[in-house]
């Protein structure tokens, strides 16, 4: 079993959906390809380069490392940590 840290959107906009459905999703704007059908990371690199031709290759590589696991590494039964951006941490009393 693996442990994953997944964000619920840039501003936490998907947190409640993830919690209510007990599932996590790729919520990448403009990514309309089926990652599960891709044989290797290079296919995803090419797809993202077509969608974002002005972005640097290192940026694309970083994005691939964030998206690829959803279809090829995360397994049912793995633990997912969902840090909440929609709630501020409470201050501890001293």
Q: What topology, given as strand order, has the largest sheet? A: 1-2
Secondary structure: number of strands: 2
Structural class by SSE content: mainly alpha
Pattern of helices and strands: EHHHE
Radius of gyration: 15 Å
Mean pLDDT: 90
Number of domains: 1
The general outline is globular
Distance between the termini: 37 Å
- Main sheet properties: 2 strands, parallel
Low-confidence stretches: none
So how many helices? 3
Strand fraction: 5-15%
Describe the structure.
The chain has 3 helices and 2 strands; from the N terminus they run E-H-H-H-E. The chain is mostly helical and 94 residues long. It has one domain. Strands 1-2 form a two-stranded parallel ribbon.
What labels would you give this structure?
94 residues, mainly alpha, two-stranded parallel sheet, 3 helices
Secondary-structure map with pairings?
Elements (H helix, E strand, L loop, with lengths): L2 E3 L9 H7 L19 H11 L5 H16 L6 E3 L13
Parallel strand pairs: 1-2
Task: Report a brief summary of the structure.
The chain has three helices and two strands; from the N terminus they run βαααβ. The protein has helices spanning 15-21, 41-51, 57-72; strands at 3-5, 79-81. The mean pLDDT is 90.
